[in-house]
Amino acid sequence: MIAFQGVSVVYPNGVTALRNLDLKIEKGDFLFLVGPTGSGKSTILKLIYREEVCTSGRIIVAGKEITGISRRQIPYLRRGIGVVFQDFKLLTRRTAWDNVAFALHVIGVGRTEVKRQTAKALDSVGLLHKADALPTELSAGEQQRVCIARAIVNNPVILVADEPTGNLDPDTSWDIVQLLSRINIKGTTVIMATHDRSIVDRMRKRVIALQNGRLVRDEDKGAYIGEL
Amino acid sequence: MSSRMRLGYFLSETASNLRYNGLMTLASIGTVTVSMLVLGAFLLFNLNLKSTINEVSSKTRVCLYLKAEASVAEVDALKRMIEGLDGVYKVDYVSVDKARERLKQDMSGQADLGRIVDTAPLPASLEIEMVDTSKVASLTSVIKGQPAIDEIHYGEDIITTLNMIRRIVQIGGLAAIIILCLVTAFVIANTIRLTVFARRKEIRIMQLVGATDWFINWPFIMEGIFHGLAGSLLAVGIAAAGYAWLVKNWPLTFIFPLAYNEQALLHISIALLAGGVLVGAFGSFSSVRKFLKALA
Lengths: 228, 296
Ligand SMILES: Nc1ncnc2c1ncn2[C@@H]1O[C@H](COP(=O)(O)OP(=O)(O)OP(=O)(O)O)[C@@H](O)[C@H]1O
Ligand SMILES: [Mg+2]
Description:
The structure holds two protein chains of two kinds.
Chain A: E1 2-10, E2 16-25, E3 30-34, H1 41-48, E4 56-61, E5 64-65, H2 74-78, E6 81-84, H3 96-105, H4 111-124, H5 140-152, E7 158-162, H6 170-185, E8 189-193, H7 197-203, E9 206-211, E10 214-219
Parallel strand pairs in A: 3-8, 3-9, 6-7, 7-8
Antiparallel strand pairs in A: 1-2, 1-4, 4-5, 9-10
Helix pairs in contact in A: 3-4, 3-5, 4-5, 5-6
Chain B: H1 3-20, H2 22-59, E1 61-66, H3 72-83, E2 88-94, H4 96-106, H5 114-119, E3 125-130, H6 136-143, E4 149-153, H7 156-198, H8 200-208, H9 213-249, H10 262-295
Antiparallel strand pairs in B: 1-3, 1-4, 2-3
Helix pairs in contact in B: 1-9, 2-7, 2-9, 2-10, 7-9, 7-10, 9-10
The structure holds adenosine-5'-triphosphate (ATP) and magnesium ion (MG).
């Protein structure tokens, strides 16, 4: 589903964020990216939805080499990838419903289909009853659910989450991860960058640890800290 | 999404963009109005100058006074030669008798002059009507040395002056209009940039969920086109009212009547509207494109 081959990223300011990274993620995987701050987790996620471009190496997403794709092809790549953020990035003047529907509208989906899919996505995050609420009227956990609904409304094959529980209390965080896990079970590949040790340790999923832009550990059913 | 729905989406986006920064919108519509008014004034001036030149030229003939000793064959050959020249509409031979006849008519009422006219030594002449008065100078230079010609007369000063004014106005006007259009596009671009900036969060999300550049651009470009259209409509209105007033109150109607050719005025209005729309589209497009490139 996703493959990184000898990927390095050097930012324009000279910071090397990734060094010669090799990584393979299969369809339907649930994967945690862990590592100290600045180790390159967000950079990996940004490479996947092509917010960033690698300096050297090859990246394959959904069977397609994306290293050299043109600007015009980027939107079509992104339609297959849902993205969830730590800060939600919801439109504050629009309702939960509109925030989710927006993602379909702007890629040209027809009105009836928008309705159907939006209702389905909000329902699957358990927020259909708050469809008319503005983000300010929702709790942080609920806002993150709206964000997740927006990310999955287009039925992406990959879901990328950058510290989705970073702003949430432990119980809410666990709910959110459970939600991601349910989405994963339906077949979506989920990649989540996190600093949340208890979640990683409880989930026992594949863990990839980074340090200073290098992959230092890759284990199935792993933990936040490697077992030595 | 059907194309009608898509249009609906674009229109509602455009409308909310316009609401967002009313003052800047007014400023950019205003600049469009000003530049299109200048363009309109230029086009109207040009139209009148052109019709004045045509008017004057149609009354202007080049008159070749012939030497008395020139033979009929010589004159005939000369006439045929001139008829073949560039810019000549027709050539008439005016005999001595005919010239005398004309003079008499012109002086009728002044009976005591009749005798002088009868005895005055009038020359025969060739009268040349021009299609294109800008060719007069080259025409005279070609025929100047002809042996049958005694003197050449034509309203050279006024025609060359008018043509020169027209040339200067055209060059100066075009330069001014180009500069004004660039300034206008710049003002529009800045207005649109404000809207784009205010909506950067939405644009960001649109990019992340896979909206194409065109889909993101359209509402902003339509906003620019709207500014251009509104500004130029205003300009057409002001120009039409102003020109109608001017035509009514023009003090020189008998010397230089103002042109009121509906076809030409319609063309000018269309030119202003098209100019406004183009400037608006260009301004917003350049602004949005720069922004999207930066965001990627
Ligand atoms: N746009 C950028 N320009 C320059 N340097 C950057 C940019 N983004 C990230 N970096 C640098 O690249 C390195 C990796 O950053 P990255 O955001 O991938 O880390 P991270 O693992 O996500 O950290 P955190 O856990 O704090 O989110 C850091 O040293 C960071 O300073
Ligand atoms: Mg990060």
